[in-house]
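Researcher: Predict the fold of Iron complex transport system permease protein.
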Amino acid sequence: MSLQWRTRPLLVALGVLAVLLAAFVRALLSFDDYPMSVADVLRTLTGGGDGGETFVLFTLRMPRALTAALVGAALGLAGAIMQSLTRNPLASPDTLGVMWGASVGAIAVIVFGGSTGQVSGLVSQVGVPVGALVGGLVTSAVVFGLAWSSGLEPTRLLLMGVAASLFCANLVYWAMSWTEVQDATRAQTWLTGSMHAADWDRVGPAALALAVLLPLCLAAAHALGALVLGDDTARGLGVRVERARLLLLLIATLLACVAVSAAGPITFVALAAPQIALRLCKLAYPPLATSMLLGSALTLIADQIAAGLFPVALPVGVFTAVLGAPYLMYLIVRRHREQHL
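Model: Structure tokens for Iron complex transport system permease protein follow.
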């Protein structure tokens, strides 16, 4: 029985990894109107491509694919941590206000910092990530602080998250209505959650942040597994409950802020990936590694579908929102039925 429990999550993780690699390769081969074969891609990767192939692969496709993969990984991991900590499938950076809080900070930089007509240079590389980080951390602290009452009660936490999301969303729209039309248009484009402007300036900080946060997640995985069993059990297993919970919430918030700063608010990936991973692995709580890989694969695939399936290329955030809204309603109905059985 124990061997079966360990084998299935491993096989699922390997299967999701294979899907992720296939989606990444496809993104390098045929993302736009410039066709490249596998041989063309391999030749260009080794320095043998012509100028056009080098530009398409290294300037357009690879930064976009890497950004989508990193953003999806951060969202999947953040969602898995939040759902495990709260023991609530509806908990995610989307529903708890973190994503809108990060958007407030980033939009403030875009609207008030783009004085030259575009967000670029130091403002883009440092200002937007810092703004998203500050906005997400402040919102997360407010939501979890107000929801805390001798523990995290799921319904109270979600209501606080919804209230914070509405408040932050209206702050964003107020900032957009108060500024020039050009800045408001640029902010609105960013708010849709898109990979269209992905470049190496976005890949670098996102990769660096994940390189720091992922080991912390793995180190805290034991404490997270104990917290899922309840505070008393976790204390019995030697876990410092409050310190571990605070650290995990901080990591999840930072991951969500990293994703928002790289591509804008891409909704429902953090909500759906952990629940799909949980059902595939048949575990009691979302597995971190599989949720991360699944979030990465879902974002990559969604970006390719949104860019290539319709007459006009859609931002990936619009596509995931259209798919995610029915899924959120399904989760709410399912949880309501489970509570009344």
